[in-house]
Amino acid sequence: MRKLSLTVNGERHDIDAEDSATLLDVLRLKLFLTGTKSNCLEAECGVCTVLIDGRAINSCITLAAQCEGADIRTIEGMADGDKLHALQQSFIECDAVQCGYCIPGMIMTAAGLLNEKPNPSFEEIQEGLCGTLCRCTGYTKIVQAVQHAAQDGRVRQ
Predict the structure, then answer these.
(1) What's CA 14's distance to the chain center, in Å?
(2) Is the pLDDT confidence value at 152 over 90?
């Protein structure tokens, strides 16, 4: 066991965790942030995506100990109080949500993409989201939701 100090969604957390604990395990089991989903545990599906210092990463293969000193943002930290993040609002407006299981990972992946490329093309969005899988949709509405959120610089981290 080791003592970790992690900043998650702007709040500092001091926790005890195994050396081998993944960020996903810590988020879900220690901090009870269950919006970050657990699925493949091999960085193949993207449902565990969170932002580390603004970049999208797969939390299932990232050791929690590697994240000390970093700004970790989960889906729970995207909204500002009752005001949804532009991506969250856009997913609703564009009907880009079906069962919802992949949506937190999609939104976090899209946020990382838009942090790096604020006005991506349709093809760049498709490529940027290719590591996050959805079994319910053909991705068109998801890509449109990301484009919609990126319009006029509405997206903020």
Answers:
(1) 22
(2) no
99 and 136 in a single domain? The answer is: yes
- Give the per-residue pLDDT at 9: 98
Q: Tell me what the pLDDT averaged over the chain comes to.
A: 93
Position 99 pLDDT exceeds 90: no
Query: What CATH code is carried by the domain that includes residue 18?
Result: 3.10.20.30
Instruction: Please state the φ and ψ torsions of residue 15, each to the nearest 5 degrees.
Output: -135, 160
Q: Which two tokens stand for residue 16?
A: 């005890």
Give the integer Cα–Cα distance in Å for 114 and 126: 12
Q: What is the pLDDT of residue 54?
A: 97
Structure letter (DSSP) for residue 63: B
> Is 115 among the domain residues?
yes
66-83 residue pLDDT tens = 999 999 999 999 999 999
Q: Mention every residue, 6+ apart, whose C-beta is less than 8 A from residue 60.
A: 22, 24, 38, 39, 40, 41, 42, 43, 48
C-alpha torsion 31→45→72→17, nearest 10: 40
Q: Are 112 and 55 in contact (CB under 8 A)?
A: yes
For 136, the domain range is 86-153
116 Cα distance to chain centroid: 14
